Amino acid sequence: MNDENILGYIRQISSYMDYHCRMLSDRGELTPAQCFCIMYIYENRGVDFCSTDLCDILGTSRASVSLLLKGLKKKGYLQMNSVEGDDRKKRLSLTPKATDFAVFLKEDARSIEEVIYRGISAEDILTISSGLKTILSNLKQHQKGGMCCDKDPHSPN
């Protein structure tokens, strides 16, 4: 095991980013998760996906995603249209209000990335990214069954 306090660094980075996201989301009267959804939909506009896809991406339950999307719709950020041939599925699209906010969030993300990557070589960024992906994958395997996207459909539970 390394002497580096990687877990401590991850906690500190996560705490800082959570705080930053809360400050941004307050501007739009949204939760950080709702901001993430807006950005995901904005960055994938033109691609058909439904709320169940967000469950996999967020690593949370369908009920949580449903509440999140209902909140976005109520606040005027999201439109949900029925998918032809399947009334249970809804196609998600952003309102102009959400699109404007997504542009603001995108610019902020670009600014934060500049700060995060300052002084780090491109090679080291690739190494860090690879390591973090591995850490996340390991955690997801450790948490099997804890999130809807991790549940094994063949499991008796």
Short description, anyone?
With 157 residues, the protein is mainly α. It has helices at residues 6-27, 32-43, 51-58, 62-74, 96-117, 122-142; strands spanning 78-83, 86-94. A hairpin with a 2-residue loop joins strand 1 and strand 2 (86-94).
Protein architecture, described:
With about 160 residues, this protein is mostly helical. The protein has one domain (about 5-120): Arc Repressor Mutant, subunit A, CATH 1.10.10. It is about 60% helix and about 10% strand. The chain contains six helices and two strands. The chain has helices at about 5-25, 30-45, 50-60, 60-75, 95-115, 120-140; strands at about 80-85, 85-95. Strands 1-2 form a two-stranded antiparallel sheet. Strand 1 (about 80-85) and strand 2 (about 85-95) form a beta hairpin. Helix 3 crosses helix 4 (about 60-75). The two termini are about 35 Å apart. Residues about 145-155 have low confidence and may be disordered.
CATH superfamily descriptor = Winged helix-like DNA-binding domain superfamily/Winged helix DNA-binding domain
Number of domains: 1
Taking strands numbered 1, 2, ... along the chain, how are they ordered across the largest sheet?
1-2
Number of helices: 6
CATH architecture: Orthogonal Bundle
Q: Any idea of the CATH class?
A: Mainly Alpha
Helical fraction = 55-70%
Percent of residues in beta strands: 5-15%
CATH T-level fold name: Arc Repressor Mutant, subunit A
Rg from Cα = 18 Å
